[in-house]
Design brief:
Elements: H1 3-9, H2 11-20, H3 23-61, E1 65-70, H4 75-82, H5 90-99, E2 103-112, E3 117-119, E4 127-131, H6 135-138, E5 143-146, H7 151-155, E6 160-163, H8 165-171, E7 181-184, E8 187-195, E9 204-205, E10 208-209, E11 216-220, H9 221-227, E12 239-244, H10 250-264, E13 271-274, H11 276-319, H12 321-329, H13 334-371, H14 379-405, H15 409-413
Parallel strand pairs: 4-11, 6-8
Antiparallel strand pairs: 1-12, 1-13, 2-4, 2-12, 3-7, 5-8, 6-11, 7-8, 9-10
Amino acid sequence: MSLLDGISRDSFRHALGQLKQHKLRTALTLLGMVFGVGAVIAMLSIGEGAKQEAMRLIESMGLRNLLVQSRELDEETLREVREQSVGLSRSDVRAMRETLPSVVAVSEEKKIKSWALFSFEAPSEAQVLAVTPSYFDLASLSLAAGRMFTEEDNRRYQQVAVLGAQAARDLFPSGNAIGQRIKVNHLWLEVVGVLADRDLSKDEFQGIRLGGDRNRVFLPLETAYKRLRFESLESELDAVRLRLDDDASPQQTAKTVNHLLGRRHGGQNDYELVVPAALLKQQQQTQQIFTIVMSAIAGISLLVGGIGIMNIMLATVLERTREIGLLRALGARKLDIQHQFLMESATVAAIGAVIGIFFGLLLAFVIQQFAGWPAGWSLFAIVLSVTICLVTGVVFGWYPARQAADLDPIKALHAE
């Protein structure tokens, strides 16, 4: 058994011992690796958090949905538009159903201008929305208590209502809303359901407002048409949601819908199309640019750390020239010398990686708290950053290790 065989079994402990002899130099070298690993972990964590948040926001709109909305126009413009178009209507819905076989479900919405909204307990500033029963499914809403109103309720003009979570708390501070009555303008409604709270972290996504369902009162659309009054210039519907089957392309279907409605509305720009799938794609492209920029910054940090490792290892070779000569004289092979110095550079990288993990997680947490960006903790981010760090340590440690292995043993023994 050679001397280096024994050292190899304990090479990690030996490397730590060598690094401890130059604590300040080692600490300064570690900083590059710590910042590099930390930047990679923080960048990937923020990226993962943004991806998860985007998916959650898109799911609230429905990834397989198309949303057609009436544009809000000033009164003068609206009068001009109404000469050519009656606005979004139920006849538009029928035309879309007949033209688009890929549409598997439709919901219709109409905003109610409320001048009074209260219960026997308290008033509320909630928005009132008349919808078809399919709205709740297409908007991915679920119940916290009671039931949704049904097609039968809608067809029979039943005076029932479903409350959003915030609207329920405002109208009924006591917490008992089911079976109680509320008044919308002159119309009394019985509360049959309360929606589960879905508190989204953002009020909008790519310019589209979200999360309004928390502070809304919903009633059947046919009941609203039968029991409430509307202004003459108002469109029959304010929004239509279309759910597509899995084989349909949302972008291509949106083009067809736009062409159809453009012809039906006389070319008037009184509606807008929202394609959640397109919004997600746009967000992913933005996120990709962010990831590339942050990866470049993290790569530069690791490059600086790698150069630091090369510097410290070259200095170490010079300081230990006589030791290298002695080891070669005692029978150590070039490969043994190279292995020893590579182990030392890998040890520096490993220590930097461990510290960098904690630094990266802390950095992501700080960004989340102060910048308001969501962070998603990813094992992949940790494994990737540690792997890159170790590879960097070995790559930049190879040249000094090779220099040490190639030293002439006689000259090394006589070195000062």
